[in-house]
Amino acid sequence: MTKNFIYTVLLSLVNLLFPLLSFPYASHVLGPEGIGSVQMAISFAQYFALFAALGIPIYGITEIARHKNHPENLSKAFSELTIIFFVASWILFLVYLIIIFTVPFFQSHLRLYVLSGALVVCSFTYTDWFFSGLEAFKSITLRSVVVKILALLLLYGCVQSKLDFEPYLLIVLFSILGNQLLSFGMSLRITRLQFKQLQFKKHVKPLFFLFSTTLAASIYTMLDTVLLGFLANDHSVGLYTASIKLVKLTIPIVTAMGVILIPSITRFFQEQATQKIQDLITTSFQFLIFFAIPVSAALALLAPECILVFSGKEFTDAIPVMRILAMLPILIGFGHFYCFQILLPAGKTQYIFYAVLAGVVTCLLLNLLLVPHWKSVGAAVANVATECVVTAGYIYYMRRFFIPRLQWQYGWHALAGCLIFIPIIYGIRAYNFLPLITLLLSAILCSIAFFAIQWWIFRHHFLLNFMQPLKDWLLRKKNILPDEY
Three-class SS of residue 232? Predict the structure, then answer.
């Protein structure tokens, strides 16, 4: 598990660094309107790609995990889900084309929407769910690193002025589709795609609930940008995008432990190994608490520096938006914990749907009420409120069949450790450094202080337990410990 965790954290760091190195450059060159128009096209196409997936990226992990030790069943499961994905992709692509060519709203940037359609028609090539089910996180990580480095080089070389929003769009498409096409090709080298003796019917019910959940969840995870574009303007979309991108960069780090545990927890639920489930959940919960709370606190306190460094002075109106959205690492982290580590492995997909449906109602009502008057700030409030409702729903339904033993004292320890951030950050600001210097110094000193408090004062057991296998691995590399240790 330690190696998988290391690769998952590395992937999270790459996914964190890529936007940090690309988005600030693009936002400075293109401005709010340019970024807003490209992001609107990408978000709209991703919305259709999300529908085409039918919940397979989630459901597929558990299916592959069940059959990973049986090559014939593995091939059949992969083939069945890939064919379903392919058919759905083309159907949704045709719907997408009809909409963008007939609705007047899209005509001003029609070429951007046509190019973005590649995300829909090629969505079936996304097979990271296959590699996650096999727990092949090394493959996912290395592939992503290569594609993102190439995309970054293309960005710096091709985007030079405000008129280069189309090259920027093509580079974003490459960063997404390049990875997917590589993934699809590599999956066909591991298993074969077959077309005989396939059983599609058994996937209908779980995919129906997961598709319904995906459809509903997309309203508050992706449609927030689309609604903002319709109800406000491209400038508001640009401000909201600058904030939400920075905040959501941290989400993969917060959920990293949960991602690698899904296959194992799924098997343990099948075996009804309650104690093993509890042990894994305890580790994941401690990891979540340890990272989510300080990340949210740092994002809220350092919002001015983050916006100025990564987006520029034109985006200063996004500072209050980012401070509101800073709650998302905690809320999404807990939602991911209850949903993907308990409800989904236990096969309770209908409960996930019910919780998300409550979030949809909240999202639509609050966006319609708040966005026309408060624009990007209203969208941020609606987003946070929706995540609160969804996470509460997960907890409610989880307690119907499983009540995990969670060590909430770690939450108070993390909150206490975050208090030191306030004097550190405001003390550094008093010297009037450049925003980048303030941000770097604050991040480094706050991280050191937080880790020191957890280590020396609270003796955080998660940190101690996690460091031991990493220490043993390093010692084996130096031949200090035998391999069988």
Answer: coil
Tens of pLDDT along the chain (485 residues) come to 556 666 666 776 777 677 777 777 777 777 777 777 888 888 888 888 888 888 888 788 878 877 777 788 888 888 889 899 899 999 999 999 999 898 888 877 788 889 889 999 888 888 887 887 777 767 777 778 888 888 888 888 877 777 777 888 888 888 888 888 888 888 888 888 888 877 788 887 788 877 777 677 766 666 677 778 888 777 888 889 889 888 988 887 788 766 677 777 777 777 778 888 888 888 888 888 888 999 999 999 999 999 998 888 888 999 999 999 999 999 999 998 998 888 888 878 789 889 988 988 898 899 899 998 898 999 999 999 999 999 999 999 998 888 888 888 888 999 999 999 999 999 999 999 999 999 999 999 999 999 899 888 887 756 666 555 555 555 565 554 444 33
Q: Is 431 exposed, middle or buried (0-12, 13-18, 19+ CB in 10 A)?
A: exposed
Residue 213: strand, helix, or coil: helix
pTM: 0.71
Find out whether 360 and 220 touch, Cβ atoms under 8 Å: yes
Residue 419 phi, psi dihedral angles, 5° rounding: -60, -30
Sign of CA dihedral 398, 403, 404, 407: positive
> HSE-up of 49 (CA within 13 Å, CB side)?
23
For residue 421, which of 323, 288, 301 has the smallest C-alpha distance? 301
Report the sign of the C-alpha dihedral through residues 360, 365, 369, 372, in that order. positive
Judging by beta carbons within 10 Å of its beta carbon (0-12, 13-18, 19+), is residue 243 exposed, middle or buried?
buried
Nearest C-alpha neighbor of 77 from the set 127, 121, 140, 123: 127
Name the residue type at position 305: E
Identify the three-state secondary structure at position 134.
coil
